[in-house]
Amino acid sequence: MNIPKDLYEAAIAVRQKAHSPYSNFKVGAALRSANNIFVGANVENASYGLSRCAEQSAIQTMVSSGYKDFTEIVIYTEADTPASPCGACRQILFEFSPDAKVFIINHKKVLKTFTVKELLPEGFSF
Ligand code: THU
C-alpha cells in the first residue's frame, strides 16, 4: 500500500516543531479528515506525565476544528524502526475512526501499515 505523499510530507514538517527536550525524540503525525489535513507533534513537559503524543495533538486539532473522523494518519519518526502508536494513542484514534489506515514510517522509509482496529482489537467503547 502506498503512503499518501501529502500526509507524509506534512508529518515530516510538523515533526520539526516537536517540543521534546526531555526525551529528545520528535514525532510528527498528519491525518486526513474530509478534505483537510490536521497535524500534530509531541509536546513534552517538565512534569513528564503531562507530555502529549503527536497523534493526540493531531486529533485535538481535528476535533477543535469541528471534525469527528479521519480516513488515514501518517506517523513519522527518525527511529531505527518506525515508531508505532502507544497504547493510549491507539484508544484515542479508536474513539474517532477504528477503520482508518495508520501508516508508520521512518527516515529510512521503512513503512508499516495497519488499521486502527488492527492496532487495538476490542478497543473500548460504550
Ligand atoms: N510519543 C508520541 O508522540 N507518540 C507515540 O505514540 C509514542 C510516544 C512521544 C511521547 C514523548 O514525547 C516521546 O515520544 C518519547 O516517548
Please tell me about this protein's structure.
The protein has 126 residues and is α+β, with helices and mostly antiparallel strands. Helix content is 29%, strand content 24%. It contains 4 helices and 5 strands. The protein has a 5-stranded mixed sheet with strand order 2-1-3-4-5. The radius of gyration is 13 Å and the shape is globular. It starts with a helix and ends in a 7-residue tail after the last helix.
List low-pLDDT spans.
Answer: none
- The total of beta strands comes to 5
Structural class: alpha+beta
Looking at the overall shape, the CATH architecture is 3-Layer(aba) Sandwich
Gross geometry = globular
Bound molecule types: tetrahydrodeoxyuridine
- What can be said about the biggest beta sheet? 5 strands, mixed
Helicity range? 25-40%
List strands and helices in order, with pairings.
Elements: H1 5-15, E1 27-33, E2 36-41, H2 54-64, E3 72-77, H3 87-96, E4 101-106, E5 111-115, H4 116-119
The structure holds tetrahydrodeoxyuridine.
Could you write a compact summary of the structure shown?
This protein is α+β, with helices and mostly antiparallel strands.
